[in-house]
Each structure stands twice: as structure tokens, then as C-alpha cells.
Amino acid sequence: MYDLYAIAEEHLVAAHRSEHGRSANLLLRQQPLRQTVIALTAGTKLDEHNAPPAASLQVLRGVLKLRTATEEIELTNGDLYLVPQERHSLVAVTDVAFLLTAVND
To answer: Residue 84 to residues 21, 61, 99: CA-CA distances in angstroms?
Structure first.
């Protein structure tokens, strides 16, 4: 069993220590499922990248913005969002920690 909020707090501290403003921890890897806690400091971006075949983001703390070519959505504490099947980028509006659940082929 995992305490996601405690892990999120640990990685926010680590993100502040990182020169890149981010920290991540792969919690579960049971093919095809992967779950990762990711923490970003305010203003940190994850550049545009492809979406896996299926994925969701659940915000554990803070505010996160997801951008695609056609959409920009702001996610906050407790939000669960199905990642669209298109290239996208992420930016931390505030310090943020989220759970990325992905299913890969």
C-alpha cells in the first residue's frame, strides 16, 4: 500500500532540490500498467510529447496545466483527467504533484 500524499510531499521537496525542478517515482510497473508520482515546481514545464495508448492524471497537490494543439485545461487538487490521444505538454502553475497512470502496449 502507498501513501500517495506522503510520496507527493517527498517528491516536491526533491523537486525543489533539483536543478530541473522535477522529481518522479515509479510506484507500480505491472505490464501494461505503470503508475508514477511526478512533482514539479511552479513554472516547470514538460515539453510536448506523445500520449501513451491510455493515460490519466490525478492531481494530488497544486495546479497543473495541460496543453494540446486544440485545448488548454487547468487541473487542481483531486482532479482526475483522461489524457487525450494527442501530443501535449504540461506546466506547473503552482508547485504540483500528480499521479500519472499509463497503459502501454
So the answer is: 25, 21, 16
Q: How far apart are CA 58 and CA 100, in angstroms?
A: 7
Q: If you search the block for the grid coordinates 483527467, which residue do you land on? A: 81
The model's pLDDT over 8-38, given as tens digits with 9 standing for 90+, comes to 999 999 999 999 999 999 998 888 999 999 9
- Cα distance between residue 63 and residue 76, in whole Å: 4
Say whether 90 sits in a helix, a strand or coil: strand
Dihedral sign computed on CA atoms, order 83, 89, 92, 97: positive
Query: How open is the CA angle 33-39-42, to the nearest 5 degrees?
Result: 145
N- to C-terminal Cα separation, the chain:
26
